[in-house]
Structures are given as structure tokens and as C-alpha cells.
Amino acid sequence: MLGPVILAASRSDRMRRLISAAPVTKQVVDRFIPGETVDDVVPIIQDLTGKGLELTMDVVGEDITTAEQAAAARDAYLELIDRLEPLELGTRAEMSVKLSMFGQALEDGHELALKNVRPVVEAAAAIGTTVTLDAEDHTTLDSMFAIHEELRKDFPQTGCVIQAYLFRTEADARRLAASGSRVRIVKGAYKEPASVAYQNKHETDKAYVRILRTLMEGEGYPMIGSHDPRLISVAQELAHRAGRKMDEYEFQMLYGIRSEEHLRLAAEGHRMRVYTAYGTDWYGYFMRRLAEKPANLRFFVRSMVGKG
User: Fold this and answer.
1) How do 159-163 and 182-186 pair as beta strands?
2) I want to staple 186 with a disulfide (CB 3.0 to 4.6 A). Which of 166, 225, 251, 282 is the partner?
3) Is residue 108 among the annotated active site residues?
4) Pairing of strands 54-59, 250-254
């Protein structure tokens, strides 16, 4: 089980320095993160939307230690929104945010994160798009869901993410499905203890299907975050049983992973959204991508030894 080891490394300053300094790292990171600035990613946005795909944009960065850094993260998203406005893409290009970037872990972090994320949600609504609140480790979720509920009072299209490997998620899904939320379901990519999360892939997959059934039969808008072909097929079957049309749910996959599948689903008429991250603080995001899928790790190791 290499996943937990890699996730532990994602919090190691020593591993961060070692991997960041490796000459081959940039070419591998570029597979998952197409740029460091808005200027880098605008052509990517135009290319992918031109192919019939949709996007959710993520400015990477999680290790926020000051209120000034949190404000800078807010401003980075506002800059992105300014650049999206003339493209007139509407909800075809939305945003995903981690509340840790907006100061959630700082003193009075809940109020600070809400204060910083609200103008981003307001600006997104002004150009006809929306924001999804990403899920992080389990200790942050009560705060995230409370902020989600507060934002939805004025911006009901605000989305959130739930993680199938957490025991609490089936109850969260029932609540969110009844409220008509936009909900992305993922398996989960943080190192969580056995007291709160399934440690076995098979159990996580079973929970994913149960939760997805709840979302499909509910009043909300399900967003299926998975690259697993079996779960994609299950999602299509559950949508059919629930009488959902193709525009009443969507698939979401990461930039750089199964790109041909992105195009195939879009060609079939599905809404297919590509989770596209950019920025300079890429390390934590990159390490979770390696932990999620053995093929990603093999690709990186082969590249490190010159066989990529």
C-alpha cells in the first residue's frame, strides 16, 4: 500500500525539497499542472472548451500560514475571474477552491475563510459561473459544510465535495441531495485514520456506489469525480434508473489523466468537466495525484530513472 506512504511524504519538507530539486520533476508535473500563471492556462481553457469539454479551475496551494497569504489566494482567484470574463464561457469554466487557502486553519479561520471566499463566489456569479468548495481532511469538513450552507443563501449554485471513504459521507449525501446542491463525489485523497475512514479500496468503492445512488435519486446535481471505468458505467446506469437526462449530472476528471476518455464522454453527449490546476505551489496536489493511482507513480518513477 504505497498510497499512505506517498500521502505522508506530501507533508514532508525534506521530500518536498528532494522532489522539487529533481531535474525531471517539472516535465512530470506538467502532465498534471499545465502552468504556473493565468497567462499559461488561458490557452488551455480555450483549447479544452473548444473541444466540447468544461473545466473547473484550481489555483494550487494549501500551506497558508498568514492572513496575508490567504488574501493573496483570494486575489489570485479574482484575477482568474477577470481573465475568464471576456471568454464568456459561463458555467463551462467554474472554479474549485480549498478553504485552507483562504485561511481556514489560522486563528478565527472559519470566519476568515468565509470572508475571503465570499468575494470570489460573488465575482464568479457576476460572470455567470460558480464555485465548488473542495473537501480536505476530515477535521476541516464541519467548517466547510457550514460555509457552503452560508454561501448558498445568496448563491445557491455553490457546490461542494464529499469523499466516499469517510464514514460520515452517506449521511452528508442524504442531507445535500435533499437540499438540491451541486455535489462532487470523489473517493478521497487524504491520509485518514481507521476511526473515520475505510482503509480498503473495495469498501470505499462500495460506499461510492451507495452514495452516488443517493445523489442520483435526490434533488441535487451530481458531479461524478472518478477515472474508474467501472464507476463511470455504474454512474450511467444509476442516472438512467433515476430518469436523469444527460445535462442533469456530469463527469469530472483530472487534467492529464485519461484524456481520451474525456473526449469520448463529451462526444457521447455527456457533460465532461476537466479539473485543471495551476500555480507555483504544486507539491501537495502533485503528491496526491501520485497516491491516487499506481499508474501515476509508475510514470513518475520511470521518468526519474530516465525511462519515461
Assistant:
1) parallel
2) 225
3) no
4) unpaired
